[in-house]
Automatic annotation (TrEMBL):
The keyword Transcription regulation applies. The lineage of its organism: Bacteria, Bacillati, Bacillota, Bacilli, Bacillales. This is LysR family transcriptional regulator. Belongs to the LysR transcriptional regulatory family. PANTHER family: HTH-TYPE TRANSCRIPTIONAL REGULATOR, HTH-TYPE TRANSCRIPTIONAL REGULATOR CYSL. GO terms for molecular function: DNA-binding transcription factor activity; transcription cis-regulatory region binding. InterPro entries: LysR_HTH_N (IPR000847), LysR_subst-bd (IPR005119), WH-like_DNA-bd_sf (IPR036388), WH_DNA-bd_sf (IPR036390). The keyword Protease does not apply. Transmembrane segments: none annotated. PROSITE patterns: HTH_LYSR (PS50931). Keywords: DNA-binding, Transcription, Transcription regulation.
């Protein structure tokens, strides 16, 4: 059993097609098949239900083996990336995981500064839900994460809050709310509301606020992305509630107006997250310093 076999095995599970594995690893498909067969022969146990690999379906032994193979493969990649830092020909890699709001509205200018300071550094930004990012950090597939979440309680992770990620009320110029400085709860219930999709953290926060204040919003539309929600509000389909960081440009340009949400209780923050046992590279340190200076955190 060797690292090449483990890497091919992991990629076969994740990509589900051997020709895609071959393309990604720049080898031939017969070589992929050879290594998978050799791995199972050396282990003395079947990892897949079929020998043809037309359908990639793991046996119980295969599922157990994948748990370890994924970690070993990720650690091997991490070790290679760390050595890149110390080679004259490269400046290493930095794999960042982020949820949508910080990835879209907060990180780009910081990454521009990072790249300006380290032009040879290769940055990979993986935009996923918070749970996926934290799982990838725990599997050593990401160096660190910048995630928007209500609470993170995991003994394997070092978690540092950076900034509050509150929702604010947004509406277009000309909306009835535009001329009212102090909105009442009854006024919220009297106008069409554009909602986040069910299952999102923002939707849950709004649902909790709605329940706590004993009102029923008029949901006229449900969308699954911040940009779509802002566009719908600008078209005067209704008003919305959205992360404050996501409307800075539109607010400055006068495309959207905003107000604090009455009786809002802060529950969500943007956190820096990394594995407790992660070896900190120079690139990680440089990026953390940028975040700490930007958000004035210790």
């Amino acid at each position: 059993m060797n690292l090449q076999q483990l890497k091919i095995f992991v990629q076969a599970i994740e990509l589900q097609k051997l020709y895609l594995v071959a393309q990604k690893l720049d080898i031939t498909q017969p070589t992929v098949t050879f290594h998978l067969n050799k791995l199972q022969e050396e282990l003395g146990v079947a990892l897949f239900h079929t020998k043809s690999y037309h359908v990639i379906k793991l046996t119980e032994a295969g599922k157990a083996f994948y748990h370890y193979a994924r970690k070993i493969s990720a650690l091997a990649s991490e070790a290679e990336s760390m050595m890149d830092v110390y080679r004259d020909s490269a400046a290493g890699k930095l794999a960042i995981g982020s949820t949508h709001t910080p990835a879209t509205y907060l990180l780009p200018p910081l990454l521009e500064r990072l790249k300006s300071d380290s032009p040879k550094l290769t940055v990979h930004l993986d935009v996923r839900p918070a749970a996926t990012i934290m799982d990838k950090i725990k599997q050593f597939e990401l160096d660190l994460g910048v995630v928007s979440q209500t609470r993170i309680d995991d003994p394997n992770l070092i978690v540092q809050p950076m900034v509050r990620d509150d929702l604010v009320l947004i509406f277009a110029e000309g909306h009835p709310f535009a001329g009212i400085e102090q909105l009442t709860l009854e006024q919220f219930a009297s106008h069409p509301f554009i909602s986040h999709e069910e299952g999102s953290i923002s939707r849950q926060l709004v649902d909790d606020w709605e329940s706590a204040n004993g009102i029923k919003l008029q949901r006229s539309m449900e969308v699954s992305g911040s940009e779509a929600l802002k566009a719908a509000v600008q078209c005067r389909i209704g008003y919305g509630m959205i992360a404050e960081a996501s409307i800075r440009t539109e607010r400055e340009e006068g495309k959207l107006l905003s107000r604090p949400i009455p009786n809002w209780v802060s529950q969500r923050y943007i956190y820096i997250v990394q594995h407790r046992n992660k070896l900190v590279s120079p690139a990680m340190s440089a990026f953390r310093e940028l975040l700490q200076r930007q958000f004035q955190i210790a």
